[in-house]
Amino acid sequence: MEAEKEHFPRLRQVLLLFVRLSQTCAEGNVYTAAEETESGSFGANLAKDLGVEIREISQRRARVIFNNNEKYFQLNFQTADLQVNEKLDQEEMCGTTEPCVLQFQVLLEEPLEIYRFKLLVSDINEKSPVFPEGEMILKIMKNSPPGTVFPLINAQDLDVGINNIQNYIIYPNSYVHVLTQNGSEGRKYPELVLDKALDREEQAELSLTLMAIDGGAPPRTGTALVLVEILDINDDAPEFVQPLSQVQISENSPLESLVATISTRDLDTGIN
């Protein structure tokens, strides 16, 4: 029975503590900091936002706790300012998630109070689009009709939102143009569209530059070389260089004597 008597008072203490926490836990402000904000900067003042005196921040043993246990902020007890502990990297903190919002609490221990805050880390356009390879080879049959579409490899950009890739262009573009399509994950990818028929005999290879452009101000770009190999088809017949050849031969010429050399040509290549 004595053990049961000790159990109930402890249970009441736990319940009372839970009620107190629920009553003193308040929603706070949403702070905004730009990506690449340097260590020691930011300057949000906790005393002002919590409505307490600066001295209370140290007296009540204030602590800043992020939900992921990272220490993005340090608290200056002399000024009650929140300061960035280390340079902020939006891509490292949130990946491709946008907006990048982190939850944190400010804990005042004596007496116990908890305030909830949010940190919104805004992306800056500090990264350029990059193609996985600097050169890509595309093989197109000579008889491909205009309007035929050929997928190209898309570039990557670690920035998010408007600072990610928004458009592709290709140049010179007398034979082709590029369509910018939306992928399933919101990423944009390029497609090459044939504008007019290719003539391998006129030009066997095209050298084009594909450019990816992001939406920053000013925009950043990345390029890759696109080599288009025009594949031959058997569309040309052999023909004689001279349609009529006249030769003279002596009547006493021995057997297997060379009479004349006849030249032919075929604009196709290889087995064709």
TrEMBL record:
The Cadherin domain, residue ranges: 132-240
Subcellular location: Membrane
Keywords: Calcium, Cell adhesion, Glycoprotein, Membrane, Signal, Transmembrane, Transmembrane helix
InterPro entries reported for this sequence: Cadherin-like_dom (IPR002126), Cadherin-like_sf (IPR015919), Cadherin_N (IPR013164), Protocadherin/Cadherin-CA (IPR050174)
PROSITE patterns xrefs: CADHERIN_2 (PS50268)
SMART domains, per the entry: CA (SM00112)
Recorded topology in the membrane: Single-pass membrane protein
Signal peptide, first to last residue: 1-26
Keyword field contains Membrane: yes
Chief place where the protein resides: membrane
PANTHER family hit by this protein: CADHERIN-87A, PROTOCADHERIN BETA-15
Name of this protein: Cadherin domain-containing protein
Organism: Saguinus oedipus
Lineage of the organism: Eukaryota, Metazoa, Chordata, Craniata, Vertebrata
